[in-house]
């Protein structure tokens, strides 16, 4: 009657309840097809169906707990994704609004901004066009000569800030840099001016980048 997994039982004398497992060795008995005799009242050990029902209810409650935890998990994931989006948005805003400082600190980033169609806030409305660089020997010295045009594409007159030239290697390391000015200090709407600059004994390799910078 205990079965292989045991049963909840109760003492008929004191009312104490516990889970009783069958003995390790159970003798084989030949049982007749008749109801077992009823236990005398107030004595022996009785099977307690009430305790079995309570045990089943406890198992159902425990089984429902993981499902409730699973329902709470999506809300925590949503908060995590929201915080991640805030961090990414902050980084993108810093890259956008702080691009002039980034270009100044790391000239190697200029070409990435140019690939994205962005330019520095300083000199906004001014475009560098027809830029040509050539290595020449002037008075026995090797020089890198850079020439080009600055065009005001805005609808207002704009001052022309200084321009910084940098030679960047393929790894983004700045090899050399210098600062120069254009032939004019300002441009009317649609106006243009030219510039020319040179570097003495520049590195043999490097990509040329030009960027407007803040006047010192």
Helix content: 25-40%
CATH top level class name of the domain at 102-212: Mainly Beta
Strands of the largest sheet, in order across it? 2-1-3
CATH architecture of the domain at 102-212: Distorted Sandwich
Give average pLDDT, whole number.
Answer: 76
Unreliable stretches = 38-42
Please write the string of helix (H) and strand (E) elements: EEEHHHEEEEEEEE
The dominant shape is rod-shaped
Structural classification: alpha+beta
Radius of gyration: 43 Å
Percent of residues in β-strands: 25-35%
- What is the name of the CATH topology of the domain at 102-212? Coagulation Factor XIII, Chain A, domain 1
Tell me the name of the CATH homologous superfamily of the domain at 102-212.
Answer: abc- transporter (atp binding component) like domain
How many DSSP-defined strands?
A: 11
Biggest sheet architecture: 3 strands, antiparallel
**What is the terminal-to-terminal distance?**
97 Å
